[in-house]
């Protein structure tokens, strides 16, 4: 049997122990652990014949499905890592990510993004039929420290960064003594976007623990759909980004009835919505979950109470998740004492191997520091926090221009790089537009055209359309406006407050 600390090793062991238990529910139909394991064996053998080997990163361009899960599992059995690419993304974006992997084969397609590349899609896509002919695959020995998956995140240079997560980073939170709500008898919807680390949380979190992942049809989980999943498939553990959580509470706060627990995060929580949930559902534990992809999925969690809503700095982000250690570093890179702010750094089994093909950035963001005389490898998040006397972590803000909106981590500089590449732009600035609670709710782009804005397709509507052709939707600003010059403060720096005020004003013919 493969190492149980690997994703495929854990699932294979569950297939041996409880073969008839439901691993997945797809299109309303159950897929047992035995079927998932045997089908992935067959696909792994075919991938190995095509040249997939240990240490490679194989892109998948398929929609959410049981087939996709089985193929990703097959890639892992070959000793390789997978990266999920949304097949609906702009061709240029998808091709850029595929090229970064350097893989000899792409799973899915063919599509314009894979032109000239070898693609693989199995002849037998029904997992039960594939399981009948599969089984018995013997792959290379894989250690839990080896890469399992790559998450591409926004980059300041305009080139997405590939975060390489090892197996143990995925499995660490779902072993015995891990997060509540995972394992036999538990079920979670899988609705997070394919390229995101919370996709792994919702899919592998349950299946490596012996529970059930229920694949959601379509792009988004909505309140009515949640009600159905609870009643039909016994969903009892839920993850929602902060924005979705707020929307669910606003639209249908009773849709959570029947759940055993809710995890939410990805952005600063709204005390107003947390208070409403806690009062309406005192019997359902609500957890704040915080963490960057570089420390896979979650770095801290915190069971929320109504008292947390009254704290001056907002609700806490909590205590370290299983397999994780949190260290705050002050200006001298020495650990901060309780009550002293510092940069939040993560350590432990959740850490990424590094950035794909970027050893310089890996060395910069994953240094080894001295903690009480012991060398510790950490990830510097760029977030600022403080711990209270009980060791509970509180988030204070960012040290750079990175924001999170609807769970997506966004480098504002990446958008500006894309805008300048369009031509006809003298200068530009992208800002995060705050919502009523002060957290980032959307993006606004202001640009100074190099000539009349209407010339050569340089009007705001055309600019936005061109960005939509090259960037995923979450990176395309909702507000795009021309401006005669970018405002600056008295010390000559960009006046973010003035731009925010302009962004919040009613739109006038697409211009500021």
From TrEMBL:
AMP-binding enzyme C-terminal domain boundaries: 414-493
Domain AMP-dependent synthetase/ligase: 13-356
Recorded superkingdom: Bacteria
SUPFAM superfamilies (UniProt xref): Acetyl-CoA synthetase-like
Pfam family name, one: AMP-binding_C
InterPro entries: AA_adenyl_dom, AMP-bd_C, AMP-bd_C_sf, AMP-binding_CS, AMP-dep_synth/lig_dom, ANL_N_sf
Protein name: Amino acid adenylation domain-containing protein
Organism: Streptomyces hokutonensis
Phylogenetic placement of the source organism: Bacteria, Bacillati, Actinomycetota, Actinomycetes, Kitasatosporales
